[in-house]
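General statements about sequence and structure are easier to judge against a single worked case. When preparing material for the folding task, we compiled for one chain both its residues and its backbone structure tokens. The amino acid sequence and the backbone structure tokens for this protein are reproduced below:
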Amino acid sequence: MTVNLMIATFVGAFIFPFLLRVCVDPLIKNFGPVGGWLFAGFVVGTCWTLNHGLSMIFQSGHAWVDMAWAAGFGLWAASIYSGDSLPKSIPTFINAIIGGTLGGFILSCFLK
């Protein structure tokens, strides 16, 4: 993997959890449940298009990373950085693993 691909992969993996952390609360506070739908439609769709449609994230071989893992681990790291203790953040870590694994399994059921 070249340095350019490493940088693009890191930035691509950073974008989604960063926007999730910054945008979800204000959208939900201002628009209620519709704010969640707005986030899902605009931000998730845009991040997916950047990372997978434009291949910003480089994946070699047959490995896959579901966006739920990126979001879960990104928010887990952010919760520790913002002052939560490591034991308090373990449920987020476990839910990220379960959500990413479930998402990947569901995708593997119909994507070949």
